[in-house]
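pasting for the record
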Amino acid sequence: MQSLRTRSPLSISPNSADPAQRSKAIHDLSKACQDWGFFLVINHGVSESLMENIMEGCYEFFNLTDEEKKAYEGSDVLDPIRCGTSFNTAKETIFFWRDFLKVLVHPDFHFPDKPKGFSELALEYVERIREISGELLRGISVSLGLEASYIHDVLNLESGLQVFVANLYPPCPQPELALGMPPHSDHGLLNILIENGVGGLQLLHNAKWVNVRAPPNSFLVNTCDHLEILSNGRYKSVVHRAVVNNATTRLSLAVANGPSLDTIVRPAPGLTDGANNPPAYTPMKYKEYLQLQQGNKLDQKSVLDRIRLQKE
């Protein structure tokens, strides 16, 4: 099994005033999106104390009583707050070894009112993540040969959907027989993740699973389905999974950043070229894609494959 621990993280400054630094950052972004669909971000400006406190808030939420958490149960992908287990209990025959909290935090901010102070921490945290995501997406736009503001403007990111997702993976008595999350790609543009130092995230790269080991105070970033659609397949969403262990609890916090719900996402016209490079994906409203995913089993790129246009 390969590991990413020894690979150099990416220090992102695509909007730097230094032309050489900016050019290198954009080049590194392009290479990471093409080769891996994944990169690490350091020197991001988010305080270590905020990162630690938001993780502690997640622990405290999962330690609430079952009765307290029951108030936040939901069933629809667009319910403002949902907590529970598995992915889609209407479709899955096996429940995965995790508890989760999913909250829609932008364009309207929702959050549980327990534990005390968690909501205020989360608001500050997701605002900082939205800034980082915006900076990365400006650099990615340029790396694709588009205007820096192209992704922001065409996908209406001022009203873009942002989702706070905390996953708790307790020790599993038989980890070889269970998964925290099955192999899948994510909807949206970029997912920005931190974890509690316990490994479990694996990426599918060149048909092999690769363990991810994050340096302290860094962000793990993976590219998602709608970046693949917009780039007409130049940048691929990465298939990943979460594995569990029998000794230690793993906690991860991902913030998903996507288009506005009513935006129709299609390949950028500047990245298609008639018969030589036609559009490879069917245009679809982001909201409809989410509902399509919710109605399917989580399996590799099964939803993206449904809107992929086959070349004749």
